[in-house]
Design goal:
The protein is an alpha+beta fold. It folds into 2 domains: 86 residues, SH3 type barrels (Roll), CATH 2.30.30; 64 residues, Roll (SH3 type barrels). The protein has 3 helices and 11 strands. The longest helix is centred in the first third of the chain and has 15 residues. It starts with a helix and ends in a 12-residue tail after the last strand.
């Protein structure tokens, strides 16, 4: 399963759609066939790996007891007993790492003349400039007193910033407390 694509789709969903999906997944996981498919492959005393959602990682454990819907597992790291769902046990050695793809820069249709964008130059310095021309494969930027040609793939958005001389950025940070909201 491509978790990057799943995460991308989930990020575009509304809170209600996410809630409905969670309810549907919970209903499917509560079906006896899923629990039984794991139970038949387990036995008391077996070493297992299970997914800990708080740590977002696999943990090592030993099955102490098998209940109808959950297993009692002794965590090998902290020697604590945990009641975990059978679905959390990783019997097939699946890779649980979710690797989101790095941003691929900006496309030609995502920028316009006058936009302020940033990039990292060859010396690994963060630069910021205003787009003065759009080319087929690159943009021309005015950065302080110099012009740069930069490929679209190396560009990133600069949010709520004002360009200053010599390519430095001054960002405005705004904090909003819920109790300060207008009535």
């Amino acid at each position: 399963m491509n978790y990057s694509e799943v995460i991308k789709s989930l990020n575009n969903a509304s809170a209600f759609e996410l809630y409905r999906m969670r309810a549907a997944i919970d209903r499917v996981l509560d079906e006896p066939r899923w629990m039984q498919s794991v139970q038949v492959r387990l036995k008391v005393g077996q070493d297992v790996q299970y997914f800990d959602p708080q740590a977002n990682a696999l943990r090592q454990g030993k099955v102490l007891e098998m209940r109808r819907k959950q297993a009692v597992v002794l965590d090998m790291n902290d020697a604590r007993r945990w009641l975990i769902s059978y679905a959390a046990i990783n019997l097939d050695g699946s890779d649980v790492q979710i690797r989101e793809r790095k941003a691929q820069g900006l496309g030609r249709n995502e920028v316009a003349i006058g936009d302020v964008v940033g990039f990292v130059d060859r010396d690994q310095n963060q630069r910021t400039g205003k787009i003065i021309r759009l080319n087929d494969k690159t943009v021309s930027l005015q950065c302080g007193g110099a012009q740069w040609r930069v490929a679209y793939a190396y560009l990133h958005r600069v949010v709520d910033a004002e360009m200053r001389d010599q390519g430095t950025i001054e960002a405005n940070v705004v904090q909003l407390r819920l109790d300060d909201s207008p009535e």
